[in-house]
Amino acid sequence: MAEATRTCWLQWRMLVPIIAFVLFSSTVSGNFFEPFNVSYDHRALIVAGKRRMLVSAGIHYPRATPEMWPDLIAKSKEGGADVVQTYVFWNGHEPVKGQYNFEGRYDLVKFVKLVGSSGLYLHLRIGPYVCAEWNFGGFPVWLRDIPGIEFRTDNKPFKEEMQLFVKKIVDLMREEKLFCWQGGPIIMLQIENEYGDIEKSFGQKGKDYVKWAASMALGLGAGVPWVMCRQTDAPENIIDACNGYYCDGFKPNSNKKPVLWTEDWDGWYARWGGRLPHRPAEDLAFAVARFYQRGGSFQNYYMYFGGTNFGRTSGGPFYITSYDYDAPLDEYGLRSEPKWGHLKDLHAAIKLCEPALVAADSPQYIKLGPRQEAHVYHGDSQTEGKICSAFLANIDERRAVSVKFNGQSYTLPPWSVSILPDCRNVAFSTAKVGAQTSVKTAELVTPPFGSLSIMQKTMNEDDVSNISKSWMALKEPIGIWNENNFTFQGLLEHLNVTKDSSDYLWHKTRILVSEEDISFWEENGANPAVSIDSMRDVLRIFVNGQHSGSVVGHWVKAVQPVRFVQGYNDLILLTQTVGLQNYGAFLEKDGAGFRGQAKITGFKNGDVDLSKLSWTYQVGLKGESEKIYAVENNANAEWSILEPDVSPSIFTWYKTYFVTPDGTDPVVLDFGSMGKGQAWVNGHHIGRYWNITSSKDGCEACDYRGAYDSDKCRTNCGNPTQTRYHVPRSWLNPSNNLLVLFEEIGGNPFKISVKTVTASLLCAQVSESHYPPLRKWSKPEFMNGTISIEGTAPEMHLHCEEGNVISSIEFASYGTPKGSCQNFSTGRCHSSNSLSIVSEACEGRNSCFVEVSNAAFGNDPCRGTVKTLAVMARCSPSWKTGYLGLRSTVSRSEQ
User: Fold this and answer.
1) Please, is 482 exposed, middle or buried when counting C-beta atoms within 10 Å of its C-beta (0-12, 13-18, 19+)?
2) pLDDT tens digits, one per residue of 544-579
């Protein structure tokens, strides 16, 4: 491609998402639906007069940018979601008491309107306590300073503030006409959040608070149902809902309420220094299918998209900046396969069953074996007459079992549910995965059952040429750095001083050391030590400007030897938070900094009580205060050129510039060479970074069978928990992007690189034994029984991310291929035209379907043998390949 043409094409490709966003945004005014009401009975939510089986996608708007929202919502809808669910983040919307923020990532109205314009409903969880691994559980820190306040109990100051905020949100939604009865997408609200977990801590006041919260919410006149999750004593007119890994056995506290699953934990969060969680797609699909099988009607993935804890929003303490959560859409908004694709197929199968599921008040239960069972839904449909759908479950964790049902034999894999939309033909099995898989670690674990498809996500790096080789540095002063400080006798509580305006609080005092003390230490071969009964999260100790040591932990004892000289010594204690506590009772009392006795041990005449000394306090960093990370301010700082051979330095600011990589793939910065600190790009705070390596143990081969918990199927053992940090493209310029870091413990900025995340390698294996494609099941004629799905061949579906096409087929074999992704080889049985058939169907296309049958490949290469199609394909940006990405999705069977 000529350079001028390539430049124009790149400019067009970069404009595409912006144009799409503008077009999408232009549709977000006015009504999105004809006004309708939502109610419920014991079976389901009743939407516009009809019971519904609903699938919900959890997306938290502040964990993405507004420019990302349309794509996230569209992919959720494509994946089979009917609803989007989000919390409302109080501390983001009211950072200062009485001053509200509904701009940028906190533009809640825009987010709700985008959901409505997509044709999806919205479940708004106001809380306003959210937990969510979010800083302080979503509470603004100013709340703890209100006299006499106690959070989340029958406490007048708290209830007044809570009611003000909840009313603010409900009134805002009503003013914008966003409730369903106004033509908007909001069909359900939530008050409080998992309060049942801590209610006993408050005794009778806790019980009274639950009743008050419910009454207050209902009194706001929102006109839609309210839920309380994990609240067994939810009042009669509030729906209590389930949160957990499995909710198929959950029953609400009244037979008048439907079974709702507000949080299906499809992954888990990660801590600095921890391994990464992974929940297999087979087990997640099993849990969801069991939920609908046993009478569930609304299920929400927590999370469908996790996103990023930008800035200082991560809670904890010690939760990492990434909130990927092993969700169906990864941190950057790319599909995480096979989870996304496998769940999409599951949702399609459930939708095929919906007419029968909503028609029956309860299922017929049939025991098929010791650990095998069927739930059958019969009903009458106005359009289809008698209808029937069935779920066959095998909850045995080891054995596949053949069962008889409805006069036919079915083989049920272990730990699986098979879905029969017509009570006869299997449309989907939770244990048989035919979708692509994102490989985010070096190790690929092959599930023991079903086919496996693989999408390998790689980090592209153009010889690190996008980032400048020139760096500048600036030392951060140790201790008191301007007149904005104060002196107080005693040790103050960290949050009472900082108000969480910064992670950092400096404490400075002077220690007088006598000649006798020096002699005493020399004679005994010992040193004095700073000893603090309890501290959190990081303590750094400096003596006379020199770093003496650090302690890391959450309310742990700190003992750190120090060296003094004779005379006066400056002792500086730097306390740091790494995300405020987000869970538990009495959050207002949690605080930060020091607890208990603080002293210096080892003096000749006894310990020095630090709480009796006079301390000078300074909040934050000088660079923070001067906002040297902002584009308009950074030139005012006294930067100096950093030489490559200079030793790593603590408490240092660094800056450089970088060029935005070509294309539309997500951009990340690799900080694998750094220590601990924070980073900004063009003034946007992309989050905390910290290089802590996880344990080498605990990443054994993962078997999806059996109950999941957060310690099962861990990955990334022996590696830093996080090294790559998301930089949304909307925060970038084509060039001259300012990168500023504050580094605490030393690192090498010259090794930082700019990369793009791309799903470049696709692998898939689908056999003749797979079920007919759900996209053909979904045709109306299949539902009324006029056409049999028997004889319909399975298909392989390959798809690249947007802006990419299948540039080459690197392996294809229809027969008995051997090996796994990147190591495929032909077996004894092989159709010689495999490569040409697949290449013709797929190359140059963003997505393709290939029928897995003898007819599609023109012959039967080995009679009497079950054949499998194995393919390895490569995705490349369309502008690099010469394909403009305009060729439509094609199935070989439809050509």
Assistant:
1) exposed
2) 999 999 999 999 999 999 999 999 999 999 999 999
